[in-house]
Amino acid sequence: MDEEIRLDPWGHIAIKDYERLQKVFGIKPLRPLLPRMRDPIHLFRRGVVFGHRDYDKILDALERGERVALVTGFMPSGRFHFGHKMIVDQLIYYQKLGFELFIPLADAEAYAVRRIPRERVIDYALNQYVANFIALGLDKKRVHIYFQTNYDTKYYRLIQMFSRRITMSEMEAIYGELEPGKVVAALTQAADILHPQLDYFGGYRYIVVPVGADQDPHIRLTRDIADRATEFKFERPASTYHRFMTGLDGGKMSSSRPEFAIFLDDPVEEAVRKLKRALTGGRPTVEEQRRLGGIPERCAVYEFFLYHLVPDDEELLSIYTRCRRGELLCGEDKDYAAQLLEKWLTEHQRRLEKARSRVEEYVEPPDF
Ligand code: TRP
Fold first, then answer.
1. Which residues 6+ apart lie within 8 Å of 254 measured at CB?
2. What does the alpha-carbon distance between residue 282 and residue 329 come to, in Å, rounded to a whole number?
């Protein structure tokens, strides 16, 4: 019998078994759609974004020249690290393709579910998240960044109307044990995802939601609500799913485990020091590694190359093969990664410094 698995969007586990996710939940592989995508960035080419629901409908809409939008949210519950950067890289790709972007800052969710004080949530949202969006190159045009607690009346009306479209036991089947804060957070997220379909917000029929696989429960709930809230004639939102970066010790990369994540505002020497201590796919001895080769699939440093540091596919492949053949050892590999990281971070932090004074051009902070 198939062992039951339930995704927990509020859990803290690393999701390892992506293939089972596809089988059990009906998430489809993205790879077959790649040839239809315009200039897919490395994250798509390399399978970091691995799955989807209804993404083919987004591609159809693009081919017909229709207007398209994207929604994805960030929970400002800590500092901004390289796992978050990967999502912003996708946002910038879509923005260049002409998508309208809606980016909720999930301060209501962080407050209710993670129990983080308001002032800290707001500070993280502005000085960590939005500042990094700007420094990474998100354009101010065609983007709506908002706090979940500080948006438009019509958005809140959706949350209230959606509450009638789902029962407690259906929600428990999706999420497991619930509490009121989580119910509100889930319905709020449904409003985040569906509100751009209202004429008032642009009337976008084709919406894609790029998220980590842990967010799929919210996607399933939202798609059900879209069908049931018949007065609106909503289209079901499409979604894509990305793998998470693992932490430097092979566990989950999370701001609550700062020694195993690299933050975009870490002092450069500290970032390099963390990277140099990272778990690699190396063998216990140099002799063995020369003989058997390393295992890049298990290497946190290789992951940095793949997600962030080596944009060129051929160079990445050469690092991969030289490691597998035992030609490239971890020491040399780490030195190279450190060099690239140092250069990238130094330049980014110059931009970040300037970006911090510009956040209020992008978003209006709540007054309490
Ligand atoms: N729940 C998401 C998280 O934990 C944040 C989020 C809020 C979100 N609203 C959203 C994600 C809408 C996608 C779409 O990070």
1. 12, 78, 83, 247, 260, 261
2. 8
Distance CA 43, CA 40 (A): 8
pLDDT in tens, 111-160: 999 999 999 999 999 999 999 999 999 999 999 999 999 999 999 999 99
Ligand 1 centroid – CA 364 distance (Å)? 19
User: Residue 25's Cα: distance from chain center in Å?
Assistant: 19
Q: In angstroms, rounded to a whole number, what is the distance separating the alpha carbons of residues 110 and 239?
A: 22
> What pTM does this model have?
0.95
Number of domains in the chain: 2
- Closest ligand 1 atom to residue 192 Cα is 12
Ligand 1 mutation target, pool 109, 146, 222, most atoms within 8 A of CB: 109
Q: Cα separation of 161 and 156, whole Å?
A: 9
Distance 84 CA to ligand 1 centre (A): 12
Does residue 62 sit in the same domain as residue 158? yes
Residues with Cβ within 8 Å of residue 142, at least 6 apart in sequence: 95, 98, 99, 100, 101
pLDDT tens track for 247-300? 999 999 999 999 999 999 999 999 999 999 999 999 999 999 999 999 999 999
- Can you give the three-state secondary structure of 23-35, one letter per residue? HHHCCEECHHHHH
Cα separation of 291 and 285, whole Å?
10
Distance 357 CA to ligand 1 centre (A): 25
Nearest residue (by CA) to ligand 1, atom 4, is: 75
Q: What is the CATH number of the domain that holds 296?
A: 1.10.240.10
Name the domain boundary from 247, 271, 299.
Answer: 247
Of 211, 216, 256, the residue with max ligand 1 atoms within 8 A of its CB, to mutate for a pocket test, comes to 211
